[in-house]
Amino acid sequence: MRVTVPHKLSREEVRKRLHERAQDLAGNVPGGVAEVTTNWVGEDKVDLVISAMGQNLAGNIVIADHEVVIDLTLPLALSFVEPMIAGTVKEQGQKLLA
């Protein structure tokens, strides 16, 4: 699943906000308790694993000039709710960059 979040910020500002707010990602996962593990693998890329409700979603966030691209691999058990998850990811991504 790929979600793009447009922005009008510099890459440096996006990096800063993602670094500062990475701990907020877990609180933005619907369903209550979640654990988010992040690993910056480059200046503009962070790998992440989201664990919630017995499911793991692995993916990454890539910072581009005018958008942030979030790629997540959904387990088969969640594929039927992909549109809902994509909408939530986009909404929460906008909040993290605000």
UniProtKB/TrEMBL annotation:
InterPro entries hit by this protein: PHA_gran_rgn
A Pfam family recorded for this sequence: PHA_gran_rgn
UniProt protein name: Polyhydroxyalkanoic acid system protein
